[in-house]
Structure to design on (331 residues):
């Protein structure tokens, strides 16, 4: 398991389960497409005098279970000649080579960075040098160091009229560069975030904890996932619903089932990435062509999973729909 991790700080802060939660769910026996050995994310490794680089955004690295974290900016400061794109940030003099920097043993990607060219270059340096970016190897090692990624959305919606590039776009760039340079496929030790089952399992766990804190004794049977992205929000909710249904089938056969929820209903809103088809739409209306697949390559195209249980105009209407389906009175 990796002990010293290169972490790319995201421009937008993600939600991510901690190490103990990851290990506990792995012990329950569930799996997720693209998740790999997710328990490795939470390993609390490292002994002796290894230097632990300080996270630039506080204690989030330690909260995930890592004790030896170095960021891209810290790696760049240690090896300034690696980042040569920005002329303003190039070193004025040639620095002395370093041989005292501990080897990096894995790469953790949580969200799209601010300086893409810097992160792409330094991540490639780490992968091609087997974690020793100050050196050069005759050939690229393969399999490469473990790469763990969260949040694979290709696009997300901000204030602009059209969607913005998400972390999935950054991963796509990294995958394309790695294949072009090495002729091989970039492999992930684990993929989390929507639409991974891991993320929905984490969300269910948080809901269960909040219910317990409020003293709600009745088990949560129905989950509702509201989102604006068919490929991540709807796909993930439907994938988790399928997972819950398989769990119910196992319970009927007498197999132990750790989950209490019975269904996960996907509700798609029209205020973000998704836009309902209409006049002037850029959607695939001509010739019956299928829309482009915006999901990550390791999840694969499954059109049925991208069809929402309900499509509503906004979150307010989604909440009203949930109240109606549960038979709750609206004040």
């Amino acid at each position: 398991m990796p002990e010293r991790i290169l972490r790319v700080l995201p421009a937008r802060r993600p939600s991510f389960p901690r190490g103990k939660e990851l290990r506990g769910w792995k012990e329950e026996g569930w799996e997720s497409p693209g998740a790999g050995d997710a328990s490795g994310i939470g390993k609390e490794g490292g002994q002796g005098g290894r230097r632990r680089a300080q996270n630039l955004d506080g204690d989030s690295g330690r909260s995930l279970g890592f004790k030896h974290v170095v960021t891209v900016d810290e790696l760049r400061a240690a090896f300034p000649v690696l980042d040569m794109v920005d002329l303003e940030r190039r070193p004025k003099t040639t620095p002395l080579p370093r041989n005292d920097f501990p080897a990096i043993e894995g790469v953790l990607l949580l969200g799209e960075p601010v300086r893409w060219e810097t992160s792409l270059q330094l991540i490639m340096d780490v992968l091609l040098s087997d974690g020793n970016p100050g050196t050069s190897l005759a050939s690229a090692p393969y399999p490469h160091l473990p790469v763990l990624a969260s949040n694979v959305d290709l696009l997300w919606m901000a204030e602009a009229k059209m969607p913005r590039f998400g972390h999935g776009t950054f991963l796509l760039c990294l995958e394309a560069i790695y294949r072009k340079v090495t002729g091989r496929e970039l492999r992930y030790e684990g993929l989390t975030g929507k639409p991974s089952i891991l993320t929905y399992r984490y969300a269910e766990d948080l809901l269960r904890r909040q219910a317990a804190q409020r003293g709600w004794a009745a088990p949560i049977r129905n989950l509702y996932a509201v989102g604006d992205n068919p490929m991540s929000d709807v796909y993930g909710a439907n994938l988790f619903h399928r997972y819950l249904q398989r769990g119910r089938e196992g319970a009927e056969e007498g197999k132990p089932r750790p989950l209490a929820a019975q269904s996960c209903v996907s509700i798609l809103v029209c205020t973000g990435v998704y836009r309902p088809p209409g006049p002037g739409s850029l959607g695939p209306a001509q010739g019956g062509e299928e829309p482009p697949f915006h999901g990550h390559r390791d999840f694969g195209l499954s059109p049925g999973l991208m069809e929402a249980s309900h499509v509503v105009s906004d979150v307010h209407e989604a909440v009203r729909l949930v109240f109606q389906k549960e038979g709750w009175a609206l004040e």
Residues 28 and 258 are 7 Å apart (CA to CA).
